[in-house]
Amino acid sequence: MVSETLHRIGMRSSHFETLSMGAVGLCLGLWIRAKTVDQEARGNAERRALFTGLWPPTLWLIGLTLRRYE
């Protein structure tokens, strides 16, 4: 149902695959940045990077689901 709606509004699997790779890059960037902040803010910055690291598999699977409609 969600995948049909995404397909109907013009989203394609390549969009989500690109978003997934972008999320990997964002996660790596946030992780590197977490290593440069002071000790007090480091925990929060690392949690932000780990949270962002959960996005790529979800986005990639949405892309695979949309591939059925293409």
* pLDDT < 50 stretches: none
- Number of helical elements: 4
- How does the overall form come out from the CA principal axes? elongated
Helix content: over 70%
Q: How would a crystallographer describe the biggest sheet?
A: none
Please identify the structural class as seen in this structure. mainly alpha
Report Rg.
Answer: 15 Å
Mean pLDDT: 93
- In whole angstroms, the N-to-C terminal distance is 15 Å
Q: Strand share of the residues? A: under 5%
For the secondary structure, the number of strands is 0
Order of secondary-structure elements: HHHH
Tell me what you see in this structure.
The protein has helices spanning 2-8, 13-34, 39-52, 55-66. It is elongated, with a radius of gyration of 15 Å. It starts with a helix and ends with a helix. With 70 residues, the protein is mainly α. The mean pLDDT is 93. The chain is built from 4 helices and no strands. 79% of the residues lie in helices and 0% in strands.
